[in-house]
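FIELD: query
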Amino acid sequence: MILSTLRIRNYPEDKQDQFPWTLPLIKNLEELSFEKNISFFVGENGSGKSTLLEAIAAYTEVPLAGSYRLEDDESLAAANALADFLSLRFAEKTHHGFFVRAEDFIGFSRNIKNEIKELEKEIEEAKANFQGGDMKLLLGPMEGEKNNFIRRYTKDLEAMSHGEGFMKFFTSRITGKGLYLIDEPEAALSPTRQLSLLSLIIEKVKKTGSHFIIATHSPIIMSVPDSEVFYFQEGQISKVDYKETEHYMLTKSILDNPERVMGEL
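FIELD: result
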């Protein structure tokens, strides 16, 4: 594991009327101990799971896979504020990893596309202004950087479906032993591609010992063997089997007897 424990230190009593300190979860949070390499944050909307995941990202300063840096993204202001009061202990520190939300992917793909366009522009300008010498030596580094982007991400991630592009991002960016923070990946992935993502994560854990912390509503994603589920409910966090979550029980109930469930709505 990379991350070992998490707790809040020096709770700010003067901020109790400000978000995220108004969340019961934050008021009640004592210490979380991470014992597996794949950890899930599970709970209803508004339970605080995404806010806590974002705060971990802000504390660790892992790259944000989007259009902004973590500290510049206004939607992460509460997470940045909470990060200042977190205390994290690491089993091992690493420079690898990232934080990604489904909505960040659009900004990420546009950034990649713009990087390739800028390199193409630089190459054309260099050719136009060439005044003798070794053309290959001049263009080699720029061509190499452009080709590396295309090889890693394809020329246009936006031309793919959201799910295809999202999976291309994961296969390209999950490299080396690191801390990978992922918020609700199911928003962009079909059930089949959710399984593809899980296969990739399991493989990386076995090969590198990376730590994945994933906030999710998907019973498919939280079903990974040898993982841990932190259940956010009624202002508390507890470790449970994924079959004890409302997400699993409700989904199973619908699949077992959709007519009965729909008739009770």
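FIELD: remark
The chain is about 45% helix and 20% strand.
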